[in-house]
Amino acid sequence: MGTTMSPVPGPTPNAALTFTAEQQLDDGVLERRFVLDGVRGVLWTPATATPSRPAPLILLGQPGGLGLDRMYPRLAGRARHAARDGIASATLETPGSGERSPLPGADRARADLRGALASGRPVPDDVVDRLVLPLVDRSVPEWRSALDALLALPDVGGPVGFSGGVIAVGVRLAVVEPRVVAAGLFAGSYVPRSTFEEARRVTVPVHVLLQWDDEGNDRQAALALFDAFGSSEKTLQANLGGHTGVPAFAGQDAARFFARHLRRPSPGAAPTGG
Amino acid sequence: MGTTMSPVPGPTPNAALTFTAEQQLDDGVLERRFVLDGVRGVLWTPATATPSRPAPLILLGQPGGLGLDRMYPRLAGRARHAARDGIASATLETPGSGERSPLPGADRARADLRGALASGRPVPDDVVDRLVLPLVDRSVPEWRSALDALLALPDVGGPVGFSGGVIAVGVRLAVVEPRVVAAGLFAGSYVPRSTFEEARRVTVPVHVLLQWDDEGNDRQAALALFDAFGSSEKTLQANLGGHTGVPAFAGQDAARFFARHLRRPSPGAAPTGG
To answer: What is the value of ipTM here, to two decimals?
Structure first.
């Protein structure tokens, strides 16, 4: 896949963002590892991105728990797909995951979740809140700082989309961050009560993926959340299968959603793909 | 759009199918009007369809009530889109619609439906049955006869998909007709109880479009029907909007569903589109 991996010395565009390594992938995508305020991340930019034509950007959310290294292959695959549409992608390691320190109260919340699941009772609202809201509260400001830093790069511009990860994070970010103009969400994690209220305030186009038989997900909650979005364009795509069984064509449909909303017409060139 | 419209004399491939007019559209699509056992229909074949390379076929269902002439512009648009993927399309006027004689009991069933809707009560099951099942019972054998006739043409082959129209017709046809290998259904009409049972016996890939705010459709029934399909590949795509507000991108996604399942790889050529 990649050809070279070398440390990148020299200045970075602002104090908080430090590039630590870069490699040119065989499809022309430039992959740069970075650290932003102590958080590890990756930026992928298409060969078409230049200072005179900066690329739109997709923020690739990550689920809680797995960490950047385990998520890397899937994220890189999605980033390279987006690059074919001329779109850059970036990800940040999720708070409390991978190499990051645990979130306060997370162990207790997970133990309470296991207890509720073992008992066969519905998961109590306060357990969901304690499990998800600290992650939302920590993640959203990090994504906003990342946007400040990434959009200051010469080859990255807007518009910006948010894709995947923890759905409550995507909802909050879509509400508070005006630079996010499209949200592709995965209904595969617990939804705090407050997220339903926040969803009513989302106005950007939304594309929600739902795995119909997701063993760890509440289908009715996902349908209710979709119903709550205030957006004038919203699409729910439900596919047969469990949490990790998203079919390839669903990933392609999500990529087309972002291409439709983020890609700017090329001056004097026919649009590619889709 | 079209250039010429002329009667077509001469023999037709079997006794039941008579071509009545044909025109070459400006994108190379050949549009042929026909009558099959007294029922009017239209066949659209792409320029790429030849006897050595017959085109796959999509059967374009029609809703009840409107008739071929009112449906023509939408159907022709979808047929021309499919032709870009090398796929032929054909439609038949729905029993009881347009120029066709009313189905027995239809006036009474529609009056009962209006009464139920006016009263604000749920529509009784027997009203749905009397409204929809006669249409299913009449339509499905007609589609099967049409397949016999159309697949006998030199430039039309399989595989075959069914698209749109009355969802109970599509479900029945997918169960009983082995030549139908993919069904793109529109959840926009009443669903008889027996259709839920039939859906469990559907095994071909299914792509269901649902308009989330369809004023004349029961969202919960649509979700339950999707849940019932026995297919190992099934996708529900729900979009914001009313019955007639299917967004253009949803039509494109449905077209890609058919291209994925019907299009055969071109010998020595890269696949087009998608």
So the answer is: 0.82
